[in-house]
Structure formats: structure tokens, C-alpha cells
Amino acid sequence: MEKLINDFSFGLFIWQIIIFVLLLFLLRKFAWKPILNAVNDREEGIKNALDSAEKAKLEMQNLQADNEKLLQEARVEREMMMKEAREIKAKMIADAKEDAKTEADKMVAQAQAAIESEKKSAIAELKQQVASLSLEIAEKVVKHELSDKDKQLKLVNEMLGDAKLN
Amino acid sequence: MYFCTDFKDTVICSKMQRKTLIRILSVLLFIVSFSAIAQEEHGMEVKEVAPGETGSKTKKEEIKEFINHHLLDSHSFNLFGSTNEETGETHHYGFPLPVIIWDEGLHTFMSSEFGHGEEIVESNGKYYALHHEKIYRTNAEGTLNYDAEHGDHPTNVRPVDFSITKSVIMMLVVGLLLIWLFRSLAKSYAKNGSIPTGMGRFFEPIVLYIRDDIAIANIGENKYKKYMPFLLTVFFFIWFLNMFGLTPLGVNVTGNIAVTTALALIVFLITTFTGTKDYWKHIFDPLGDGMPWAGKILIYIILVPIEILGLFIKPFALLIRLYANMTAGHVVLMSLIGLIFIFKSWIGGPLSFGLSFAISLIELLVALLQAYIFTMLAALYFGFASETHAEHEAHEGEIQHL
Question: How many degrees, rounded to 5, is the angle at CA B63 between CA B58 and CA B69?
């Protein structure tokens, strides 16, 4: 201990304090502050870059999800449109068939009606003809009776045989 | 172990290239250092042999004296000495340094006027002699008085010595080196867009390590910034001076009690003046509201003096630790080299060379470790001082860990 105290140099102590404090201030001003600031800035920069990269990644993901959604929607819409078109097609075919059928039925009915009326008119005409024919026959028979009784009878029979067909 | 893993992580991320470079550099450093110290020793040895018929006991004493002399600060910058074999005269190579003393007035002269401690210097009517690198006022004959009370030290008056000694020169050199080194690092950031170049690549991880694992870990995220300049300066200052202590220049600055005292005093002042209310409360009222006042009085009679004593013991431990470690390292290293001259044999020589080489490697680590420990503990004390109550709990673990 005595040696330590004897070795203690007050001058060196003072010099050390002066040099160290001076060094501390110089280094603080010219070295430590710029160094630490630069390092901090760099770290901040790296942090920001990482953050923005993360953000961009998220955005990208969002965008992709959006795209996927859009695509899905489009697909659904297409599906729907296809279905609709198919339905329309089926309906149109069915409608056409329906229409055709009713038309055909109508035509058939009309034809039938025409046939019926033709038949009726034909029958009416036939009846008239039969009537006029009967009258003619009757006239002829009457005329013939006047000449020969047998012949008259024969004629009547013949006439009747012919008339049966009608 | 905390130190090793983390430090490795930060530094080893640098590439193998740099590691090899450092290895080569350190090996070179040792080779140079040994040759020069051996040269120094050689000079001494020849001088010692010249008078003849001196036994090995005297040689041991001579070596011991040489080591003691090396540990002291010096008024001249000696690089090495040689002895003329014929005349037995020793010639020292180096340069003198200015002596500035205050003894009822300012006296300045060059240390070369002392010769090598043999001559008396007359300055402004007063006479001074150099004895074991200390300046004593004496008379024209240069008489030094001794008495039993003072042991080996003369009782002559010692004027206040403000000389630019070898240590002061080394501190200035290290100071300039630090300014140049870190100024260029700071500039390289500005120039290269936040990317360090050259030496900065080696020093930046260390700066970051001090910031992240010393300052932030011990002081806390909020307050570490104002302590950073001191921590960085003290770390590199001690480390560089320790490293210079291993060079052939043979300076022992950090192993000088005055230097470590000055550093510890600065730590003490910073701790004291940045102490928060909670810090002082912890010293004068450590139990807080945990106990009624009647009980506290009894405990505080013992506890408060211990806490107050602790204020001074902490920096005192800092100064003794650094001083003792560096001095011990130098003593061991020089003793092992001294063994070569005692053994003087083919076995002893290489053996002590190998031993001192191994110790040098350890010293290289110690140089870094002591700088680290000083910085770490300073940061820890700053952490105590700047602690506020809210942060207290979070820090408890860290303290116990140490």
C-alpha cells in the first residue's frame, strides 16, 4: 500500500484526466455521434425496408386473392349464363313444338270441318239428285206405263236396282 | 460465458480472411515484441556481467529491479540500451521528454539533463535528482536522505510533477490514433452510404457490441445514449493502451495506479451526477415502504453506511482491478523472459521462451478482457444510477447474473 501511494504520480493523474476528457469530447463530437447515428439510420433503413417488403407481400397476397375471387365470380357467371341459355333453348324448342302442335291440330280440325261440310253438301246434292232422279224415273215410269205394263214393271225394277247403289 | 458467446457471434460473423489477418498480425507483433524485450534484457545482462564475479543472486535482484523499473512511468522514452563491453558504460537509445515541475514556481527542463538518473539538475536556484523515476528536491551534492519510517523512499521533498512522461506521450498517441481511426470510420459512413470500409469493418461490430450488449443490456433502451460516448471511449482507450503495453515500446500505462484512478474517478463522477432520485433513495432508504420506521432505524444504522461505502468501493474496485491485472501481466511476462538469463541453458531458455509466449497470448486476451470488464462494470454502475423505479424489476435478473 505504501508503495502504491509512493508510486502514485499526481502529475500523471492530472494529465490522464485532461487527455481523457478532451478525447471524450473530441471523439463524441467527431466520431461517436456520426457513427452511432449512421448505424441507427442504417438499422432504421433495414427495418423500414423489411417492413415495406412485408407490406408488399401482403398486398400481393391480397391482390392474388382478389384475382382469384374475380376469376371465381366470372366462372360462376359463365356457368349461370350457360345454364340460362340452355334453359332458353329448351323452352324455345318446347314452345315451338307446342305451337306446331296446336297449328297442326287446328289445321286437322279445319280439314275435318271442311270434309264434313263437303260431305254434307255432297249428301245434300246427292239427295237433290236422287230426288230429281226419282222424279225423272217417276216421269219415265209414268210415260212407260202408258205403253206397256210389263215393260213398265221391268223398268221400275231396273231403275230400282240402279238406284240402290247410290 | 455470457461474454464469450455473444462476442463471438458479433465478431465471428466477419469472414475467415480477417481472422487470418489478425492471427498473422498478432504473431508478428509477438515476434517483434520478444526480440525487442530480449534486446532490452540483453543490455541489462551485459552490464550486470561486466563488473565480474557477481553470483546468480545479484542477477535475480537485477532482474527484479529491471521489472520494477519497467512498471514505473518514465521521464524519458527509452527504446533500448546497449553496453560497451570494454568500458562497461551503458548507452541508451531513445529520446528525452520535457520535465515540468511546480516547486514554489514553475521549473521546466528536458529529462536528458538528468543523464540517466546520475546527474543533479539545477533549475532556478533549486537542485533536483531523479531516483526511481521520481524527482526529489535535493542540494548541490544531490544527497538523498533516508529514514526507517519511509523505508526505501528518500525523505526529500517531492515537487509536484507535471512532466510529459512516457505514459503521457502514449496516451496522446493512443488519443490521436483513436481520433484518426474513428473519425475515418465516421467519414466512411458518410461517403459510402452507411457501409463501413477498411478498418471500420473490424471496429464496427465492436462498437455495436458495446452498444447492444454492454450499454443497452445494462443501462436500458431509454437512457443508454448519453453514456455511449464515455463507454466507447473508455473501452478503446483501455484496450489500445493495453495492447501498446504488449509492444516493444514497453509502456505500462494502464498498469499505472494514477491512470486507473483517473478513469475510476471519472466513472464515479458520472455515476454520481447522473444518479436519479430512485438511485439515491435506494442508498439512503433501501427498504422503502416495506417496514415500519422503528424497525428501519435499527437496520439502517448498519445498512446505510454500507450502501454509502459501496458508492466508493465500486470505482475503487475498478481502479484496483485494472491496475492489478495489467501490472501482474507485465510482471509475469518479464519474469519469464528474465528466467532465460538465469537458466542460461539449452533447456531453460526455450522453456521460458515457450512459457512467456503462451503468457503473451493470454495477455492479448487479458488486454481485451480488462477493457471489456471495465466498460461493462462502468455501464452497470451507470445502469444503477440512471435506474427509475419502473425499470427496477426488469433489471434485477441482470444484476444477479453478474
Answer: 125
Which of B151, B162, B208 minimises the CB distance to A39?
A: B208
Contacts of B161 in chain A (CB under 8 A): 9-11
How much is the pLDDT for B129?
80
Shortest CA gap A56–chain B (Å): 25
Q: Which three cell numbers stand for residue A2?
A: 505504501
| C-alpha gyration radius of chain B | 25
Extract the C-alpha cell encoding B321. 482491478
CA distances from B377 to A50, A149, B160, B324, B370 (A): 35, 172, 32, 16, 10
Are A31 and B172 an interchain contact pair (Cβ–Cβ within 8 Å)? Answer: no
Q: What is the pLDDT of residue B150?
A: 62
B-chain residues within 8 Å CB-CB of A27? 178-179, 182, 229, 232-233
- Among B374, B362, B380, smallest CA distance to B237 is for B374
- CB atoms near residue B59 (< 10 Å): 18
Look at the block and give the residue holding cell 464515455.
B230
What is the spatial distance between Cα B244 and Cα B105, in angstroms, rounded to a whole number? Answer: 35
What percent of chain A has a predicted confidence (pLDDT) above 90? 51
Cβ atoms within 10 A of the Cβ of B211, count?
Answer: 21
| Amino acid code (one letter) for A23 | L
| Burial label, B295 (beta-carbon count in 10 A; 0-12, 13-18, 19+) | exposed
The pLDDT assigned to B50 comes to: 38
**Residue B234 one-letter amino acid:** V
Per the confidence metrics, is the pTM higher than 0.80?
A: no
Give residue B12's pLDDT band: very low, low, confident or very high (50, 70, 90). very low
CB contact under 8 A, A27 and B161: no
